[in-house]
Amino acid sequence: xTIFSVYAAHSPKRVAxxxxxxxxxxxxxxxxxxxxxxxxxxxxxxxxxxxxIDS
Length: 55
Hints:
alpha+beta, 27% strand
């Protein structure tokens, strides 16, 4: 949960609204990818949640 508040502080509102807010924050095996715009003030421009495919 701590990292998501940091992500939200460095994201535009439209991205911050996509961040998980309830526990469990991620499902087992799920990862959250943050796309960061480089520069003097790096910003998270998009996030993506990915889960492994069940076989």
